[in-house]
């Protein structure tokens, strides 16, 4: 990636880019007194883009958000609830998502065609719309453009996530300072639910909606799409981006001299959020980062990196701080892409464990110390071509089983 | 499948079909005094067939067995060790597998081109050939044609499997009694290893090697290939079938009036072994049987059944006796095949939980009781076509994590 073209903003959040306010409150969908309704608002119509879950069963909010984005590609707001996914809820669920959209639009004084909706939580139960509606009425009074607004929003989208997930960078586009920020939630459980990923990106860059859509897709493929907690794809996964344009930069195009810098910055934000989701996976004690190089092409490298990071055996071994390269090479061999079986190198951090597909004697004590750390790197070099990829995941622990084996009642 | 065309032989094993002896002993590859070397011998050259792991990293014994089978399709013996997989062992590993083959042939007085070799256990370590060779010399003295011979063999192929796995049926082919039997091992751990499946089928049916190969492949696709313990595919998976022909039936062809009965019997043996492997999966407390009907075709049904049975969230929920249909429908939706999202029915045993993709109110107490049983059925009807499939797996438990997180040292 060469030299870094952006600066990390330590305390930045979705309200840091110019034009955005955000807020959150407790409306009563969660049993405890935690935030469960949040909103991001842009003071101008923002160029918008979104990517959605590939699961065939898509929750009602996704249908409503798709329609909003199809209608000109501009958004003024995104309203989100946690505690109920509004999934598998039929015609009533769709009507409820539309009501959320319309009521948020009215409360915020914007067109309902420019309001996106997202939900996460229990599947198969109808939203308690009286609570949602009462909460939406109060949302305008909670909007803030400072760190607290971003914070309240981040809290409102969590389910059993342990920590808030934000990232923010600034960079220069055509001589103007541009800020990109994001918030995300990851794998939480609210019975009966599965891991849901929601992501929200705000920026003040001036960029058209079609190009933002292309860039968001490209960046998603190397960030959010490269994480695995347990291989399950939710009915509610969604990533929404809004660009206010208030940085007043010369509009970004693929030919813009600072286009690559913008993409780098967006990739940083999305990658940090993705890694935060992986590290905060259910029951996780460690972040696992798998890098595959020397593949025939990037796609082959991605397939292998994701197979390794998705292997229950590899994940269990990392939990146990076990330098178990046999499981890693077995994952390489079943990824479904061609591999030269005689030229594979594997490192755990800096510890070489396999060279040209042959075991290397290594110091077990040093390996144990390394694997006990909170981040474990698995590096595979296929020594074939120049394809490379990185994927992120977490270890498989007793707590994952405990969390997911719990009775819903 | 219509009426059952075979009779189950309760205490039958690989030595029950005419012409077979088997045995096992401890040669010193396992640390404890358990059998770790076994052999099945046929008194005549048996028509033979085999299927192998799809993992690109294939252990040395697989290469040697492939060569033996390519040389006329007849086998007199298969020699197996546990405790060491002879995988990722390079040229020396290949030489060692050939030595096992040659020494077993000499000890048994058969051609080495008619001896198959299989291994399971630690990856990346060379076999202790002095122990293997000494054991092979003693093998002829341990051969028995009774139940004890089958038993000794079954013990010799186990790693951390908890129970021996055998199945046996008889049926009539052209007026003659034909017996089909099998032995298998499943997901065991010997550090650092992954789940390995080895299967061995013996029969006294008269059937040519090419047809046996076709039938074995077809039956494998609906039995061994429909089980999942953790989605990891080993470097050593192998299924070998040997047909002595000593039942003296009119040779089986696809047009033979009892061909379907033979396939049914073979399917029963392979399915029973496959289910036994799933039930005995690492840490498993339950067998999960997933049936999908009403799919566009059998392949679509297979894809969905395997996605459900492979879902860590579904497996954890079954461990926790949680009637979590949300995770099941989410797995249906990400299986990669077309599904009508409005017409899905789901039952847990006889308990209807989803009808036409809408939740059904059910008695949670009754569901809990059902899910606490040692076998859990998940039935999905897509209400689209006539495609159907069944897959087997096990729950995901604390013990799976414990077993697989254990330090290798």
TrEMBL record, chains A, B:
Substrate binds at residues 159, 185, 196, 282, 404, 409. Its main location: cytoplasm. It comes from the Bacteria. Gene3D superfamilies: arginine biosynthesis bifunctional protein suprefamily, ArgJ beta chain, C-terminal domain, L-amino peptidase D-ALA esterase/amidase. Its EC number is 2.3.1.35, 2.3.1.1. It is an enzyme of class 2 (transferase). NCBIfam families: ArgJ, PRK05388.1. Catalyzes two activities which are involved in the cyclic version of arginine biosynthesis: the synthesis of N-acetylglutamate from glutamate and acetyl-CoA as the acetyl donor, and of ornithine by transacetylation between N(2)-acetylornithine and glutamate. Heterotetramer of two alpha and two beta chains. This is Arginine biosynthesis bifunctional protein ArgJ. It comes from Cohnella cellulosilytica. The gene is argJ.
